[in-house]
Specification:
369 residues, mainly alpha, Na+/H+ antiporter like fold, two-stranded antiparallel sheet, 2 strands, 75% helix, 1% strand
């Protein structure tokens, strides 16, 4: 993604997006349709894609996510991390939204809206426990959020995820339902499975992005790096995103078409979840006076989920054809169009924020020539 709005230009935000970014909903819609058609019309495609994996990690999805995340993380100015880690309001707010509000909200919505569908309900609770890693960085960048803050918050929540995922899974699937007299279930996952997801989907592109900036600036200087190198790799974030969407829809295209009412039932709590988490993050950031960029980052990191981890855990525990796995897959299928729409909502709200001076030099405009 190679477009960003100037820090002090509020009007005509959409007009300042690159040609690629301006028609993002169109490209995503086309990718969804292609994925659905491939999954429906090509016999055995979903099964074949499911078998292309290494140590339980889907290779096609991994490739798409890594291609998607690398250009954005290569744009991060890692020398600005100190200004983010010193912002306690931002860090504490993110932890509360992600690890207190998020899981509790998904638990409540799943039981309220899916009381008669235990498999889907459990799948959604697992989605609520898997916090942001990959796509949230794309949504944040498109909405002109704070890149450095996004990288720090994703890393922070990833560390919490390694420690807290299994504990919260046990609490929300077994302990809390028992207290409330509801049906109990279990979850089977290991710290290594979670750490592996974090290392692959965050560690690899983060290290690659850091080394690119460090070595690129040392060899050619910051001007060359930001004016020549970054525009060349920028569009690959979109290509990776679209490839990932095609794969996701192809994997479950047959089930989505054959079980539309189930998909709608799963989608309802997800829609409510994304709206509350994003809106709550946005409201909290505005009340704390974080400014547009960090408020946007807080909102998107609160609303995003690590769908790869949720799907992997659901498949490992309940099986690839289970309702829990289907709920995990429907998660990103709903998240993608909803958060794309929220990108535009966020850009439209930008003019309501007073311009704030950044703690470091402004990010240059990245419009495509």
């Amino acid at each position: 993604m190679n477009a960003r709005v100037d820090a002090d230009s509020h009007p005509a935000v959409i007009d300042k997006l690159s040609r690629l970014d301006r028609f993002l909903p169109v490209w995503i819609g086309i990718a969804m349709v292609i994925g659905l058609l491939l999954g429906r019309l090509v016999p055995g495609l979903g099964s074949a894609l499911n078998h292309v994996q290494v140590d339980g990690i889907s290779l096609p999805i991994a490739v798409g996510l890594l291609i998607m995340m690398y250009p954005v993380l290569a744009k991060v100015r890692y020398d600005r991390f100190g200004t983010v880690t010193g912002d306690r309001n931002l860090l504490v707010s993110s932890l509360i939204l992600n690890w207190v509000l998020g899981p509790a909200l998904m638990f409540a919505l799943a039981w309220l809206l899916l009381p008669d569908l235990p498999e889907y309900r459990t799948g959604l609770i697992i989605v609520g426990l898997a916090r942001c890693i990959a796509m949230v960085i794309i949504w944040n960048d498109l909405a002109c959020g704070d890149r450095e803050a996004a990288a720090v918050l994703v890393a922070l929540n990833s560390m919490f995820q390694v420690v807290m995922f299994a504990v919260l899974g046990w609490f929300y699937l077994s302990v809390l339902p028992g207290w409330l007299g509801l049906e109990q279930t279990t979850i089977s996952t290991s710290p290594w499975q979670i750490a592996k997801s974090v290392l692959i989907f965050l560690g690899i592109p983060l290290l690659a992005g850091y080394l690119s900036r460090r070595l690129g600036e040392r060899a050619k200087g910051r001007t060359w790096y930001e004016s020549t190198f970054l525009p060349r790799i920028g569009p690959w974030a979109l290509y990776g995103l679209l490839f990932t969407i095609v794969i996701l829809f192809a994997l479950q295209g047959d089930q989505i078409i054959n079980r539309p009412l189930d998909v709608v039932r799963i989608a309802l709590p997800l829609l409510a979840y994304f709206a509350v988490m994003w809106g709550g993050g946005y409201l909290l950031g505005a009340l704390l006076g974080l400014g547009y960029e960090r408020t946007t980052t807080l909102a998107f990191t609160a609303a995003g989920n690590n769908f790869e981890l949720a799907i992997a855990v659901a498949i490992a525990t309940y099986g690839a054809s289970s309702g829990q796995a289907l709920a995990g897959v429907v998660g990103p299928l709903i998240e993608v169009p909803v958060l794309v729409a929220l990108v535009y909502v966020s850009l439209a709200l930008r003019s309501r924020f007073a311009p704030q001076a950044r703690s470091s030099s402004p990010v240059p405009d990245r419009r495509t020539p």
